[in-house]
Amino acid sequence: MTFNTPEWHPDHREDIVMAAADALETGYVYPDRGAALARHLRAWWREAVDVPTSPGPFAEAVTAAMRVHTPDKHLRLILAGTPSRDEAAASAHGVRRVEVLNRNVGLLELHHFDAPDEAGPALAAAMQLMAPTRALVLDFRAHRGGHSDTEGLFAGFFCAEPALITTFFERGDPVGRQMWSAAFVPAPRYLERPVIVLTSAVTGSGAESTAHFLQSSGRATLVGETTAGAAHPGRFVAVHPLLHLFVASGRPESGVTGTNWEGVGVVPDHPVPASDALNAALALLG
C-alpha cells in the first residue's frame, strides 16, 4: 500500500484496514486462521460505525476488532516508533531491581530483554551480585519479553550444560529453528540452589518462554498468576507510515514438553495473586 503523504488523514483508514487484512492473510503462522482473521477484519470495517478518526484510538479499535476472533495477544496495530538506544540504556536494559534480601535471598526484577550486546553486561553484573546468595527470586511480574537471543543467554545462567529451550516453526517450515541456552555466560552460573520465578497475568512472550523452560526443566518453581499466553513470535508490518501491525509468523514448541502455551499461558506451581507473590515466595524459602 502506497500513501501519497506520510501525514495522517482519516481517509486512510480503509486502506489501512485492507492492508492489515492482506498482511494477516499472507503472513500469519496458521494460514487458515490468518485467512479467517482477514475476513473478520474486512467485515468489521464494512459494518463498523463511529470508528475513531485519530491514529492512536483508531489503532486501538482495529486491535480490539481483531482480538475478538483470536487469543493471540501479540496481534496489535500500534503507532510506529521504537525506543532509542538512550531510552533503553536509561531502563538498564530491563534490569529494574537487584537486591539481597534477609536470609541471603537474592531478588532480580526484569522488565524486558534487550538485544544481548546491550543487555548482556547488565545481566552479567546482576548475576555476579547474585552469585553468593543461597536462593534467588526472579521477578517477572512486569516482564513482557523481548529479544530471543537474550532469553537464551539468561537461561544459560541456570543450566550446567546447553539445553534446548524452544523450537520455532515459521509458516510453511516443517523443520524449525532451535533456541538453546547459552554455552557461555559472562558471570557465574546459578546452579544447585533454589530459584523461584514470580509471574503475573501480564508476564508475556520471552518471559513466559523462560519461565516455562525453568519450570519444566525442574530448575525453578513458579509463584503467582497464570501468564498472558502470548507465545507466538513475529514481526511488525508497516500498513501506513504511522501505523505498524504485529503479525505472528511463527509458533514455539517447548524443548522440554513439546507444548505451546499460546492462549493458555504458563500455570504457576503455587497460584497466588501477583501482588502477594513475593511474600509467598519468601515464605516457601523459609
From TrEMBL:
Q: Where is the Tail specific protease domain?
A: 74-273
Protein keywords: Hydrolase
Asked if the record carries the keyword Hydrolase, the reply is yes
EC id:
3.4.-.-
Keyword hit for Oxidoreductase: no
Q: Which PANTHER family match?
A: INTERPHOTORECEPTOR RETINOID-BINDING PROTEIN (PTHR11261), RETINOL-BINDING PROTEIN 3 (PTHR11261:SF3)
What's a Gene Ontology MF term here? Answer: hydrolase activity
Q: Identify this protein by name.
A: S41 family peptidase
Its domain of life reads Bacteria
Alphabetized InterPro entries for the sequence: ClpP/crotonase-like_dom_sf (IPR029045), Tail-specific_protease (IPR005151)
